[in-house]
């Protein structure tokens, strides 16, 4: 008979596994999340095939960009979390892409009108004036972003009841894009079922997706983790809902 893995062992597994890059392979068999219906990676690949110079902001470990089958002549990526930079450089070397380490709150280190395509998957924040500045006239910005209150059920399981989300609203993104002089040509939203099958998966996810529970550590949140572990054992899983939106904007200036 197989021995049941203990609460302490699951915590240790989730706390020890590496979280560099932006892949979620470690969760295989332990958690699942529905994919947005628009197929962001496929859209990016299609746009890249006809671009001349492209930029990926907040590339993570370059996982999405590495899937592009026909990269443009010039391909550049930025990343603000330093542990991700060598991962991205290794992943994007076959595409001959350059990866630039940046500060999250700094202007983009590129000249005006440098790119005809800018993409970004799950940016920490979108600096719309900077995106507009580096886009060539007629250029496109395509981004899949985190929606308001994403996996809120998990945040509240750890932190208790929270006020209504005040950030990451699609309508605010549209307004900010327009204020920067861009024309929004597409906006789509999706709510995606996210299922955690053990507390180790929860710990790993909270270490990686740091805005879910800001300042998360196992020790500081041990009582809440114990309660959630008991709930998962009793119910078989814990279900939350991720929220995503896709926004595409164009630089229509002459």
Automatic annotation (TrEMBL):
Record-annotated Methyltransferase type domain positions: 55-142
Leader peptide range in chain numbering: none
Keywords: Methyltransferase, Transferase
Protein name in the entry: SAM-dependent methyltransferase
Organism whose genome encodes this protein: Micromonospora endophytica
Residue ranges that the Swiss-Prot or TrEMBL entry lists as coiled coil: none
Phylogenetic placement of the source organism: Bacteria, Bacillati, Actinomycetota, Actinomycetes, Micromonosporales
SUPFAM superfamilies in alphabetical order: S-adenosyl-L-methionine-dependent methyltransferases (SSF53335)
A Gene Ontology BP annotation from the UniProt entry: methylation
Pfam families: Methyltransf_11
Example GO molecular function: S-adenosylmethionine-dependent methyltransferase activity
Highest taxon, organism lineage: Bacteria
């Amino acid at each position: 008979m197989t021995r049941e893995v203990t609460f302490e062992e699951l915590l240790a597994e989730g706390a020890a596994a590496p979280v560099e890059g932006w892949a979620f392979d470690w969760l295989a068999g332990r958690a699942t999340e529905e994919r947005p219906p628009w197929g962001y990676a496929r859209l990016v690949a299609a746009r890249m095939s006809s671009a001349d110079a492209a930029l990926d902001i907040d590339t993570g470990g370059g996982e999405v960009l590495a899937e592009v089958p026909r990269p443009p002549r010039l391909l550049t990526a930025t990343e603000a979390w330093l542990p991700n930079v060598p991962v991205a450089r290794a992943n994007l070397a076959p595409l001959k892409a350059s990866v630039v380490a940046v500060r999250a709150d700094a202007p983009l280190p590129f000249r005006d009108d440098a790119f005809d395509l800018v993409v970004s998957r799950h940016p920490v924040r979108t600096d719309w004036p900077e995106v507009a500045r580096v886009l060539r006239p007629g250029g496109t910005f395509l981004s899949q972003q985190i929606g308001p209150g994403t996996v809120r059920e998990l945040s509240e399981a750890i932190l208790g009841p929270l006020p209504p989300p005040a950030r990451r609203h699609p309508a605010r993104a549209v307004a900010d894009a327009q204020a920067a002089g861009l024309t929004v040509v597409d906006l789509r939203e999706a709510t995606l079922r996210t299922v955690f099958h053990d507390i180790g998966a929860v710990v790993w996810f909270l270490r990686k997706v740091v805005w879910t529970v800001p300042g998360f550590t196992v020790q500081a949140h041990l009582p809440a983790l114990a309660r959630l572990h008991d709930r998962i054992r009793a119910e078989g899983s814990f279900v939350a809902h991720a929220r995503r939106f896709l926004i595409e904007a164009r630089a229509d200036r002459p």
